[in-house]
Amino acid sequence: MSSHASPDDQRPAGRKPLTLHRLREMHAAGEKIAMLTVYDSSFAGLLDEAGVDCLLVGDSLGMVLQGQPSTLPVTLEEIAYHTRCVARGNRSAWLIADMPFGSYQASREQALASAVALMQAGAQMVKIEGGGWSAETVRFLVERGIPVCAHLGLTPQSVHALGGYRIQGREESAAGTLRRHAGELADAGAAMLVLELVPAALAAEISTLYPQLMTIGIGAGPQCAGQVLVLHDMLNITRGKLPRFVRNFMADASSIDDAIRTYVRDVKNGRFPDPQLHTY
Ligand code: KIV
Questions:
Q1: Does residue 228 line the site of ligand 1, with CB under 6 A?
Q2: What CATH number is given for 16-268 in this structure?
């Protein structure tokens, strides 16, 4: 596609737009949900056409786009900007925007104002990290018509408190806290739950205990309702040592489009993640 072509000129009539209702139907029918992060209009169009169900404008953009050492410096304005870019390129995928560090922790009112900014930028759902205190915030947003994806396990905005990017919920007491937090978030009305870097058995248990939460795993085993990866990781763009849950989808692909389609296919048919290779 030349840089002068608009997405509408080039794209064949695609699938019907994904809705929360449709995602719940897929989940109830046992169809896995394929999610990837994305930060710009061109990739949004490519991922949408390749059949990715959910696009996440993740605050991982701080690391993969901005070269920051963590997600902490990312601002609400930056997420809103990238959400607008992605929304322009997307036609049918469900669009989720990350609430960045410091944009929702102070009060429910602060969270509402931040969520409104992201929904007005084109998001259909916002993602909030953390459990315990956050359930009240999730309820406040959901009651006001804002779909929420929660995020437990390794929550990168808390990297300094957690002591690094390490697996969470291995010990029984930590697993118990994770189970309890998931239950509270389900009660509060969260529709999705990203589970990052948690043992596969615990993620499977949470997925069964709370079927109303569509669990999306990243380093959390194959039994979640769906999977997410950071786009730059699975396309082998990220430099340095990657966590073991990442698969390089470019290794056997003829193009980026081919790699994305393989990701969608392998999530849907349960070939990714591999319990031996990508799971804890
Ligand atoms: O910011 C991000 O990319 C994320 C995913 C890793 C789930 O939160």
A1: yes
A2: 3.20.20.60
Query: Whose Cα sits closest to atom 5 in ligand 1?
Result: 58
115: Cβ–Cβ under 8 A, 6 or more apart, which residues?
99, 104, 126, 141, 146
Within 10 angstroms of residue 70's Cβ, the number of other Cβ atoms is 16
Residue recorded with tokens 């309820």: 139
Q: Which atom of ligand 1 is nearest to the CA of 37?
A: 3
Work out the angle at residue 196's Cα, subtended by the Cα atoms of residues 270 and 76, and round it to the nearest 5 degrees: 120
pLDDT the model gives residue 9 = 47
Question: At residue 4, does pLDDT exceed 90?
Answer: no
Over residues 41-69, the pLDDT tens digits come to 999 999 999 999 999 999 999 999 999 99
- Please name the helix (run of DSSP H) or strand (run of DSSP E) that holds residue 137, with its range, or none: helix 134-143
Q: Are 114 and 103 in contact (CB under 8 A)?
A: yes
Q: What confidence score (pLDDT) does residue 1 get? A: 41
